[in-house]
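Teaching note: in complex prediction, the entire set of molecules is handled at once rather than each chain in isolation. The prompt given to students was simply: 'Predict the structure of this complex.' The entities are:
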Amino acid sequence: MCCMIKNTNSDEFTKYINKLAYISNLKLSDKDIGYLVKTLENALDILKNLEKVDVKGIPETVNPSSLQNVFRQDVIDTKNMFTVDEALSNAKRTYKYYFVISSINKDKS
Amino acid sequence: MNDYSLTKLTLKQLIDGLEKKQFTISEVIGQYFDKINEQNKKYNIYLTINKQAESNALARVNKPLKGIPIAVKDNFLTQGIRTTASSKVLDNFIPAFHSTVTKRLIKNGGTIIGKTNMDAWAHGSSTETSDYGPTINPLNTEYSPGGSSGGSAAAISAELAPIAIGTETAGSIRVPASWNGIVGFKPTYGRVSRYGVVAMASSTDSPGPMSRTVEDSAFLLNYMAGYDPLDATSHPSPIPDYTSFLNKDIKDIKIGILYSDIKELKSIQKQMQQAYKVFERLGAKVEETKAMDPHIAIAVYTAIQRAEVSSNLARFHGIRMGNDRSYFGQEAKKRILVGIHTLLKDSKIYKLAQQVRVRFIQDFENLFEKYDVLIAPTSPGYALKIGESKKNPIFGELVDMLEEPSAIAGLPGISIPCYHDKKTNLYLGLNIIGPKFREDLIIQVADAYEKATSWNRWRK
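The expected output is the structure of the full assembly:
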């Protein structure tokens, strides 16, 4: 049920790995794919153990803390601010006060 | 020949000696620098050394920590000092601010002596996924120091630091502590701020001290723990003076022994039974008990940790800092892909894992109605040889399997040495687990055990 993949030894599985890589913005080499087919198969086997536990009526959690709805005042915290220079200090490409990124919209004109 | 006598002292002995003016902080830092220069290449413990350590320390001698040197795992952001998380993605990253933990330690007189090697992004249990090569176990150079906080553990074991800090999601403080014959303390989730720590699994990450003695861990925890408004999961309850729980008896404390029926522990059962008997001698009420199967916790941890990894590593794209995503190693790529898989809309894995996690939380709540603390081995065995991690794609999960149940429940635990194998010079660790926010109780029990036995090599 939970692991979806019926046959990990298939082109379909390799395609699925490439889909996951695309979503993750990762480029995979042939060597990566060979390694990942083997190791992902193993991870998926482990996940099947989840189905052995009866969870009927059990709520889900997101973390083990008992804290709920932690808010802060919507005010500027001047003690925890960066200067522009500090904020840009580790960026490879900058322009004036900005980070520079590669274009993500291809020009279709 | 260099004089390294000051590197033999515990944190408490160093502080006492500095207070009594038996030596100076310059002499302490000087001896550590000499020893690091001589031995770091052999063990690959420090990735970066703070060359300003002596001047930093001299300015802090009047504060509680007296300028003492602290080895810091390389996933704590340190202002002006390179922070890589052992990944080439962050090869040249110089943070503009400190993590809350390093900020508090410095404010109270601590000095960062250097940044220690770890598994890249804390993904692993041997330091072999580090992009800067593995750390070597100083107790026996054929063996791994464990991980992910392997550099911090080895720094103490090799006496290249009097104390260190690490982080744990499930085993990353306690297992390397066990494999290096030192003390490793993983506090309750939310007891020590995660702010400024390179995030791995945000719902379990817990920074903690790694030390030579329980007393040293208790002392350092006083300056690490407490509420931090910059971390929304930081708990607002006040912290006690943890050192006030040292030197207390444990008469009538109720202790449950976990996991004695797990097949992976067969080879160390005899040694562990000897350790458990010490508590009986000290007047505690000790009995075997049952808990949920740790093999199921491996599945919960695999699902949740990978999901959180895929989300946390999405922010590393080479725009604001570091290199682009082509610099990720295979272990990180694997974890990201499994994480995306568990989070896909038509996959029910994540939700199911969070339900099973609640079952573990409930299981521990029931156990703590009957027992004050729970005990078990830290790891299924001694340190493993370098290279073993590559033979098993879930090496880390198996090595950490005895921490995973309590870690996903957010509970505190400490690993202390409980057996020494003379043939290999390696140690076994005893894991003492307590209820949420009962670090005091863990310190009391661990300190009593440490003082009643001869396994701690700095107490001899």
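Point out the following to students. The longest strand of chain B covers residues 413-421. Chain B touches chain A through 66 residues (CB under 8 Å).
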